[in-house]
Predict the structure.
Amino acid sequence: MASILECRNLEKTYSGGKRALQGVSLSLGRGRIIGLLGPNGSGKTTFIKLINGLLSPDRGELYIDGYPVGVETKRIISYLPEVTYLNASMRVQQIIALFKDFYGDFDERRAYDMLGRLGISPSARLKTMSKGTKEKVQLIMVMSRRAKLYILDEPIAGVDPAARDYILSTIVTNYDPASTILISTHLIADVEQILDDVIFLRDGRVILAETAEGLRKQQGRSVDAIFREVFRC
Amino acid sequence: MLGKLFKYDLKAVIAYYLMIWGAVLGTAALLRISVSLSDFSSPFQDQMLIGMGTVGSLLLYGAACCACVILALFLTAMRFYKNLMGNEGYLSFTLPVTVNAHLVSKLLSAVFYLVLTYGVLLLSGVIISAGTGLWDSPFGSVLEWIVETVVFYNPLVTLLYVLKTAAFLLETVLVIYFSVCVGQLASKHRVLGAIGIYLAVNAAVGIFTILGSAVLVRLLSGREGTTLYYGVTYGTELLFYLLLCVGCYAGSYGLLRRRLNLE
């Protein structure tokens, strides 16, 4: 089966001259949970923005499910950015209506179920919620889609350990096994147990792309320990 | 998808517009009431106090009208900036819609609200003048003059006037969008950059308009007030605004499509 994402020689340099990505070539398999790992400034978010069409590459090719980045690929990608991207003045039920309007794969019942389990009122406005609750609402919207590719940019950064557990269990229990999840993070220990594959990024280059299990067997250490060794300051 | 985007663009700012329009109509009603109370022939009223009240409500109404126009332009810019260049842009640009759909939806909703805003200003004038002698003269004669003008001149002139006004509204909004798109190219002070571009574009348009008008006046010397005079001036204005619209739209589209810079 063809991979869900293929990219060849992706290059991106920002206007200030910083080379964010340098010759990135990758192939992401279907039905995998993949960790995009690297320290801050390694190019994780730039790569994710290119996949979502929020930035344009300077060079290289990028295909998702066989399509170049565009309207077709946005239909099949469910993206959780590291910022709060929902209009704070909207009520949760209005946000659900918006997702239902634009995404044909949005499962409204799943969204209301998850909200109910967390005790979040659908009539509450986003601006009245704590940062953690806003992030949960955002995650619920993203995970309520039946997408082919989920892209989660730092989903557990800046939240308390209890919220981390909730976020990870929500991700694992709500995705379709045929779908692929790409999780960007530098908090390896928290996500290691759910990863099938890992990609290490440093200074905009892919320095390692392996299965998590294969890497652990090969090095006799956890992915977290390998990460700490590779990216030691 | 365009219809859905349009629906959300309308809903996003309606509360602000209702407040602004409410303020204009409220101050117009206040002015009308204070004018009605100004029965200076009555010996029992404090003329000084009533006069001050009328002047005060007139100033308040004037301020509300100015604020209404400025805020309408501000809301146009803010909706575009927040929804596409701010954090909301992460959602907007990952919706399965084209850049054209985003631009057209925002343009139509902004023009829709600008037209309604001018309509509210007109309505406020009706409130102030309702039941007064102004409806006999000069308002009555102004209306008659408009009808006579449309009948007298070639209907094409009237059509050109309507079209150039519509093009002017589109141009007003598109210059704002283009300025915001150019401003986002900067890594810092994007809003300031957008304001600078907006002022520069409007200054350039102003200079070009003055020069163009001078040339037209010279060319049409001795033909003032004729169908030819209005036809040529309105036609030239229409062409000028349309060219600006195309330039600003193409520039905004190109920048959003190829140089989007959400950081």
About this structure: Strands of chain A lie at 5-13, 19-28, 33-37, 59-64, 67-68, 77-80, 149-153, 180-185, 197-202, 205-211. The mean pLDDT of chain A is 89. Chain A touches chain B through 25 residues (CB under 8 Å).
